[in-house]
Amino acid sequence: MPLLAERMSRAKPSAIMAVAEKAKQLKAAGKDIISFSIGVPNFLPGEHVYAAAREALAHDSGQYGSNRGSEALLDAFLKHLQDGGFNGYERKNLAVGVGAKQVLYNLAEALLDPGDEIVFPTPYWTSYVDIAEIVGARITRLACPSTQNYKLKPEQLAKALASKPKVFLFNNPSNPTGMVYTKDEIAALADVLAAHPDTWIICDDIYNRLVFDGIGYHNFLHVRPELRERTILVDSISKTYGMPGWRVGFVAAPANVAQALATLNSNHITSLPEVITAAAVAALSGPQDIPLQKAKEFAAKRDRVLAVLEAIPGVKCPRPQGAFYVFPDISVAFGKKHPAGAISNDVDLCSVLLDAKGVACVPGSAFGEPRALRISYTCPDAQLDDGMKRIKDFFAELV
């Protein structure tokens, strides 16, 4: 029998989706399940987005689109960039993809040869490792535990960049931690990057409109514009506009990188569909009241979750200021027992928690931090409060 390609031995299914699928199966079997597992915003875009989609459908040309993205979509993204303080880009600097995940995969294909080094902080989004392994890159993880608020320090970055890695990948606000870097923290890291000119910089900042507490969103290019010749900005409509299923991601980059992604699109997806494109244009160009309101609501939900976690002895959780996640250190439970099972690690805890209380969370080891778990808190408040009470009760039952 013929064999699969060798790279498939390095490909793994998403750990997040595995937890979500188990929760879905239990719910279908009649169990009362509250899922904090999958990172979806749990709101829908405004009516203007659906109106644009219906209008596009009514006048569908049935033709292929641009490999790079339609001019209307590129222009809408240019305006989106300008609103975020990124000026000077042109259409030649842009490309689109089927969500930010495909953009990141295309970037890995475009930038990394087998054996090239990619560096990123830990905790990390699960797909960073999965994608890097598929393309055969060499991964360096920079440990950023809860004791340093899950944030990368300049001295860590300087040490890592001394080996001249091909790519530095940075996520702000962070999935899974929800942490957001201050302007001063970004400036300190940018100074290090400026001193190491041999490394591409990828900024995966798809949560940049979901920032709380007045801290603001800051990027390396805001403080060091000269880094633009090797910095790549990744964005998406998924989180900001409540449109994860529409699958539209963007990149703003040096022209040669954007062209490389357009070339890969010509071999992978050809183009985004007209209807999807029209909806994305409407989201970027239309009223921004829903994203603004949701950011306020998520901040309030964050506070509800933290209030419960702070009341659980031994659980520690740095205060997130963006996205819609909390990432508590739950290692206090290791070595203890629950009536539903023993807990020796984060995977045990999440499994026993799901079986005993019907609450689905993702083990921190999926993100490179086995002392934690991730809670995605976008569900309705009543469901959120019920789920957090179940978690509190679960910890109280440990012996």
Task: Describe what this molecule looks like in 3D.
There is one protein chain. The chain starts with 14 loop residues before the first helix and ends with a helix. It is an alpha/beta fold and 399 residues long. It has 2 domains: 6-44 and 290-396, Aspartate Aminotransferase, domain 1; 49-285, 3-Layer(aba) Sandwich (Aspartate Aminotransferase, domain 2). The strands form 4 sheets. The protein has a 7-stranded mixed β-sheet, with helices on both faces. The chain has helices at 15-28, 47-58, 71-83, 99-111, 126-134, 154-161, 183-194, 220-223, 255-268, 274-285, 289-309, 346-357, 381-396, and strands spanning 34-35, 94-97, 117-122, 138-143, 167-171, 200-204, 231-236, 249-252, 325-326, 336-338, 341-343, 359-360, 362-363, 373-376. The model has no long low-confidence stretch (mean pLDDT 96).
Tell me the layout of helices and strands.
Elements (H helix, E strand, L loop, with lengths): L14 H14 L5 E2 L11 H12 L12 H13 L10 E4 L1 H13 L5 E6 L3 H9 L3 E6 L10 H8 L5 E5 L11 H12 L5 E5 L15 H4 L7 E6 L12 E4 L2 H14 L5 H12 L3 H21 L15 E2 L9 E3 L2 E3 L2 H12 L1 E2 L1 E2 L9 E4 L4 H16 L3
Parallel strand pairs: 1-12, 3-4, 3-5, 5-6, 6-7
Antiparallel strand pairs: 2-8, 7-8, 9-14, 10-11, 13-14
Quick structural gist:
The chain has helices spanning 15-28, 47-58, 71-83, 99-111, 126-134, 154-161, 183-194, 220-223, 255-268, 274-285, 289-309, 346-357, 381-396, and strands at 34-35, 94-97, 117-122, 138-143, 167-171, 200-204, 231-236, 249-252, 325-326, 336-338, 341-343, 359-360, 362-363, 373-376. With 399 residues, the chain is α/β, with parallel strands linked by helices.
